[in-house]
Amino acid sequence: SFGRSFVPLIFFFMTLSLICALDENRAIGFQGKLLFYLPADLKHFKELTTGHTVLMGRKTFESLPKGALPNRRNVVVTRQDDYAAPNIEVFHSFEEALKACETDEKVFVIGGESLYAIALPLATELQLTHIHAAAPEADTWFPAFEAADWKKTAETSFEPDEKNKQRFSFCTYERQPQRM
Predict the structure, then answer these.
(1) What is 57-120 written as a DSSP string?
(2) Residue 136: how many CB atoms within 10 A of its CB?
(3) Under a CB-based contact definition with an 8 Å cutoff, are residues 102 and 11 in contact?
(4) What percent of the chain has pLDDT above 70?
(5) Are 52 and 108 in contact (CB under 8 A)?
(6) Residue 56, SS3?
(7) Which of 7, 46, 76, 91 is the most buried (most CB within 10 A)?
(8) HSE (CB half, 13 Å, CA atoms) of 174?
(9) pLDDT higher than 80, residue 162
(10) Dihedral, CA atoms, 127, 4, 30, 156, nearest 10 degrees?
């Protein structure tokens, strides 16, 4: 794992958002690829993340068809010491990456599975695309989360059309204050 003990003080001034498309079983990928092709979701992802920082694991970065995402700060976490690619910043732990982003207003964690699991306890927002279908095959999943910890603040649902073959919903969740 990338480590789990670090909670930066400045973090409270940053929105840490996990953004992900997941099926009914929380599945998010198979063999490094998305489970469903939903152009509306790709457009939504671009609209939300443009102008912000996207933080991802190496495998997620390598799955991007054109490399670094344009008009975004691309931060990649990897254990590989000599990893490099154009237009990215490389860090060797989630903690290092988050510290480097501490002055950013909003940071989107865009995958993969292990980075979502590490970031979830620190996240203040979830931007989830719920795909109302089950993928036939999957090998990566979004972590389970306690519904009581989150308040759904927005939901927009879509029926299938000629470009998007599955029903899906864009949902925004905000972390609820901890009860004593």
Answers:
(1) EHHHHHHSTTSSPTTSEEEEE-S-TT---TT-EEESSHHHHHHHTTT-SEEEEEE-HHHHHHHG
(2) 9
(3) yes
(4) 92
(5) yes
(6) strand
(7) 76
(8) 5
(9) yes
(10) -10
How many Cβ atoms are within 10 Å of 139's Cβ, its own excluded?
A: 11
The pair of three-digit structure tokens given for residue 52, joined into one six-digit string: 């912000």
Residue 172 has which token pair? 């925004």
pTM: 0.91
The Cα 1–Cα 114 span in angstroms is: 7
Give the model confidence (pLDDT) of 88-111 as tens digits: 999 999 999 999 999 999 999 999
Residues recorded for the chain: 180
Q: Tell me the two tokens of residue 73.
A: 């700060």
Q: How many helices (DSSP H) and strands (DSSP E) are in the chain?
A: 4, 10
Residue with tokens 């972590």: 143
If you average pLDDT over residues 29-53, what whole number do you get? 97
The residue ranking higher by pLDDT, 23 or 7, is 23
Residue owning tokens 């501490």: 102
Amino acid in the structure at residue 68? A
